[in-house]
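Thread title: Can someone regenerate the structure for this chain?

I was given the following input by a collaborator and told the matching structure tokens would be attached. They weren't. Posting the sequence so someone can regenerate them.
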Amino acid sequence: MAWDTEATRERLLDAAIREFSERGFSGARIDQISKTSGTNRERIYFYFGGKVQLFEAALSRQLATSLEGLPVLGSGPEAAADFAGRYFDFSVTQPALARLTSWEGLERGTPVDAERRALRAAGKVNELRQALPGVDQQAAEELLLTIVTLCHAWASSPNVSAVIAGTQNTARRRASITRTAELLARDAGNIA
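Best answer:
Regenerated them for you:
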């Protein structure tokens, strides 16, 4: 029976995403990733080269699914609000991305796959500008940055809500983020 290299690689990435998102780069253990994936640790080095490259591959895989699958639909400030709501939903259902990017910033220092990420972000900025005629590049960048960081913070720092609001009310937070995005979009386009 032939070895299914792609399935093995995917199992390793799935296990790595779980381990790195829960424990960060420093706390993640290659032995645990190996055990969780059901493969020997040598496969990690064979497919990825080492822990650094495995972390980068895990984060890159999560990043590929984030912005590309969520287009800005419609036009006007409501389109920005809708996008923010759908990105929030994505962040809630797939918190690994928010957690991995937090660990990346805290432990790694430099962005993984920075050029490709910048191109994806630029594409989303252009979508926002098309939906919000009259909004300049800088305002659209700030709007996207605000949406992403607000959504990621909810997924990566749930304790903050418990301290401030005494609860983690996801529906209330989603409504707040969508309203914030709509107001920022109105302000950026000087729309009453």
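Residues 5-27 form the longest helix (23 residues).
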